[in-house]
Design a protein that fits this description.
mainly alpha, globular, 239 residues
Length: 239
Amino acid sequence: IESFARMSVGDLDGAWSAAAEAQSALPAGGGQNVSAAMTPLVLAAELHTVAVASLALVAQLRGELSSALQFIDDAIRRSDRGVGRQGSSHPVLRGLDGAHARGMILIELDRLGEARSILQATVRRAEELGTQLYLPSHQVFLAVERFTAGEWDDALSEAQAGLELAEEVGETYNRVYGQAVRSLILLHRNDLPGARAAAEAAEAELADTGPRHRSHWAQWARALILEADGHAGQAYAVL
C-alpha cells in the first residue's frame, strides 16, 4: 500500500524501497498443497506477489520497460502457481492486476497486438469471476491501447464504456485516466469544447482525491488545450 501511494505522488525511489522491503520480508511462495483458506502463509504469498507487481510498475514509470516486463511476468508466474490460488482474495492472484499491468507495459513497448489480447482476456476473466469493481479499469486500459494504435473511434467507445461502468459500480480510480484519453482524442479532432469538458471532469476527480497513478495524463490534456487556446506560457507551466 505504501509503495502504491508513493507512486501516486511521484516518489518513485520511495515506492521502490517500500516494495523491495516488502518483497524481502515475505516468503516468495509455499507448498501448493496448502489449503485455499486465508492462512498466514497464503496471505504472505499474496503480499509478496503484490510487492513484485509494485516493482514492475515503478520500473515502468522510470522507463525501464524490459525490467518492468520481467518483474510483472514473475508476479504472474507466482500467482499462477501460488498457494491457495483458487481461493485467493486479491485479484493479483487471479491474474487480473498482473495481466492488466502487463498489458500496459506491452503498450509502451509498442507490442500492441499482445497488449490488446491480454487486456481482452483480462476483461473476460473478470467477467467470469464476477469482479465488477475491476472491469472499468480494464475497459480504460483497452481504450489506451486503441488510442495508441490510432483506432480512436474504438478508443472513445472503450473509454465511455469504462466510465459508465465505473459510475454503475462506484469505482472512481480510473475515471481520471478515462477522461484524459477522451480529452486527448477530442482535442486532436478539433473538438475543443468536448476536450475541455473531459479534462475538467478529470481534474474534478483529482480535486477530491489528490494525485493518483497515471493522473499526470489529465495535466497533459489540459496543457495541450491551453496551447490550442493560444496560452503557450500557461501550457508550459502546467507541463
